[in-house]
Predict the structure.
Amino acid sequence: MENLSYYEILEVSQSADKTTIKKAYRKMAKKYHPDRNPDDKEAEQKFKLCNEAYQALSDDQQRAMYDRYGKEGLQGMNGGGRSSGGFSGFDDLGSIFEEMFSGGGMGGGSRRSRRDTDKYPLDLGVELSTSFHEAIFGCDKEVKFKYKSACKSCKGTGAKGAKQTSCQQCAGKGQVYVRQGFMTFSQTCPACHGEGTMPAEKCPDCKGQGFDEISETVTIKVPAGIDSENRLRVSGKGNIGKSGTRGDLYVTFHVQPDKHFVRNGDDIYLEVPVFFTQAVTGETIKIPSLTGELELKLDIGTTDKQQFRFRNEGIENVHGHGKGNLIAQVNIIYPKKLNDKQREMLSKLQESFGIESKPHESTFESTFEKVKGWFS
C-alpha cells in the first residue's frame, strides 16, 4: 500500500472531486482505524497512509503540487500530507472523526440540540442510612434532598436574557481537535464544556449556573429486606430540565450493622457463646432470632465453631424470593481459673472415662517407642 499513489490508497480516480475523496477517506478510515483494529500494526500503517493521502488531496494547493510532482513536490509544503497547524483541511478532518465515532452526523442540527441540552443530568442520586431493624422489616422513611431546576430568568442557559455567543475556542463545535503524530483526536472543548456557546453575560439570578437548587422532602416506603448498596427509584423526583421534564430520584441505602446479628445476603449469622460443660453434655439452650426465640439443641460433644442451621429464619428477600436462614455458630467458653474443689471434681470425671480420657497415650504409643530407638 505504501507504493500506491494517494488516489490508489483512497481507491478513487485522479479526477475525483472533494466530496468523493471525503467519502472514500471516511470509508477507509473506518475500516483501518486503530480503535477498531487493536494491536494490528498493518491496519495502523494503512490508516496512517489514508490519513496522509486525505490531508494532501483535500487541500487544493497540495493536490495540485502532488499531481504535478508527486510526493517529492510536497516536501517543501511540510510534505507528504504531514502538514502543521496551518493545514487548511484540519477542521474538516476533525468533523469527519466526529461523524465516524459519535454514532451519526454532527452537523448544525446536532449542535443546536447540544445547545438545548441541560447543564446537568435529570436523574438525581442520594444516599440514605437505615438501621438494621428498618432494613430487615421495612419502614416509611423521609428523604431530604436538593434538586436542580432550570433558571427561568435565563431559560437554563446561564446567560443574561438567554443571550449567548459562539465559543471562540471551538468555533461553536463543542469539540477541539488535537493532533499527535499522524493521529487526530477530538475532545470536549474546555472553554464551553461541549456546548458550543458561551454566555455573552452571566445571568445575575443564577450566577451563570443555569439552574436554581430547591430543597424537598419525600416519604418513601423502604421494602423489607433492603441491603446496603441497593437502590430504589422514586419516579419524577429528580432534577428539572429546560423543557420542564423531571428526572427520577435514586436512593442508595446504607444499612447500619447490628451488635449480634451479622448479615450475609439473606442469611443471618449469630455467634452463640457456650460453656464447655454445655457443649460436652449436649444441653438445649435458647437463642434470639429476628422474630423472637429459638431452641438450640447442642450435640453431645459440640465443637468450637460448629454451626447449626435454622431454615427460613433469616431475612425476607427484597424481591420476594423467599427467606434466608439463621446460622448459629458456637463459640465454646472455657474457665480461666479453677479452685481446688473444681479441679478435684474434673479429675474424678476424667478418671470415670478410663482410657477414653487419655487419647494421646494410645495415639503416640508406637511413636514413643520409635523415637527411643533413634537414640539406643
User: Anything to note?
Assistant: The chain has five domains: 6-106, 115-159+210-257, 164-199, 261-333, 340-374. The chain is about 30% helix and 25% strand. The longest strand covers residues 139-150. Residues 316 and 323 are 4 Å apart (CA to CA).
